[in-house]
Amino acid sequence: MSSMQSHRRSMPGRERFQDLRGAEALVVSVLRLWAEPLREPERQHPHWQDGMTEAGLSNDAAVAFDTLMRIVLAATTRPLDLHRPPCPSLGTDEALLLDILRLAQHGQHGEAGLLMNDWLPLAGVRMAMAPLCVLAAALGRAGLHLPDPAEVTPSPNRPAVGRMDRPHSSADRGATLLH
Fold this sequence. Notes:
Layout: H1 3-7, H2 22-39, H3 49-54, H4 59-75, E1 80-81, H5 92-105, H6 109-116, H7 122-141, E2 177-178
Parallel strand pairs: 1-2
Helix pairs in contact: 2-5, 4-7, 5-6, 5-7, 6-7
Keywords: Plasmid
Region (Disordered): 147-179
């Protein structure tokens, strides 16, 4: 088992957006809305910050989210699997962000950094840790807690989602968004 596999802590049964609850649904919705102007810059888009404000998050949380994602896009070693807002499935990197935030909220910063290494080289991970921790803390202060995977049992109708293979780097570094 690789070190990435030993630190991956995917939530069971998270294959569809509608399986997400509370803080998870908020984070993925904000991420999808944040990415939309990158896909279609000429179109008008909803303000991704509005959902954060409605959820009781401070402006610091929005700045931390934006900074984190800008670091990820600037330094990513591969295209990101982020879905469009109406998509019913959950992107690999949407689930990865949830896992990283969950670990940070539970004080497991080293493990969060290891998972973040799936996106970023070590220098990028170092830069991204501060906004990640600010965002995780802001979510917690607003009562938006991401549950620890050890505390959640899988649905009897669906097996738990296991570790996905790590994507390989491609010549296209940067802000390529899939799906």
